[in-house]
Amino acid sequence: MKNVKKAIIPAAGLGTRFLPATKAMPKEMLPIVDKPTIQYIVEEAIESGIEDIIIVTGKGKRSIEDHFDNAFELEQTLLEKEKFELLETVQEVSKMVDIHYIRQKEPKGLGHAVWCARNFIGNEPFAVLLGDDIVQAETPCLKQLINEYDRTHSSVIGVKQVPEDETDRYGIIDPIDQFDRSFQVRNFVEKPKKGTAPSNLAIIGRYIFTPEIFLFLEKQEIGAGGEIQLTDAIQKLNQIQRVFAYEFEGKRYDVGDKLGFIETTIEFALQKEELRDDLLKFMSKMLEK
After folding, report:
1. For 6-256, which CATH superfamily applies?
2. Reduced to 3 states, what is the DSSP secondary structure of residue 112?
3. Which of 42, 57, 58, 72 is the most exposed place for a label (fewest CB within 10 A)?
């Protein structure tokens, strides 16, 4: 059995929820305090044992490549000014892991973005991490899924409970049996209409797939929203081999919309010693108004 050593990070979306900020800046580069959101995703992959990452980009995403590349002029300036701590921080980013890039030439959906990386993956199991979700956990979220893959030798989908009135925003699982945090699944349903969801267990941006998923992504069938949906391919994969869902441990932060992004930024800032006290004082003053 091959180990999971490769990961796909789709980053080709237009980021329309954050316009006009994302007109010239990829949403993946919007900072949570002092670090772009995509760096949190890359760090999770590395901490989970991933050795090679391919980021699927689109037009206007060059700054993602620049961020993970060397920055000779910046590094030289920091060296000359003896700002060694900042220099180390900048250099660490470019040394993280082997990162590759491929373009999704047309915005055809998440399923198509994953399919674009098929040649990079080859005939190996692989991970997919979405940038709209940041997870803080004692054991990295992706590592939890990899451990479950090692146990089951099957594809594993990360899930988390969401409020009943929000199930229409997610892919939802229809579970059969449960073993600890692992579920056998009857159906995977993409954004069910309100009141029709088979559970409140939502697919949350972390996946481990066997390469057979590409058999169904290859057909490029149009699903919800007129796009090629990854959830539809998962449903078909589940018909030929088991696909498990795993309710991972940890706190999930939704940075895919404005409110979630703001909440995450505040909470992450409060976790930093140098910011916490001053931020709490500011928040207290705001509440007094």
Report:
1. Spore Coat Polysaccharide Biosynthesis Protein SpsA; Chain A (3.90.550.10)
2. helix
3. 72
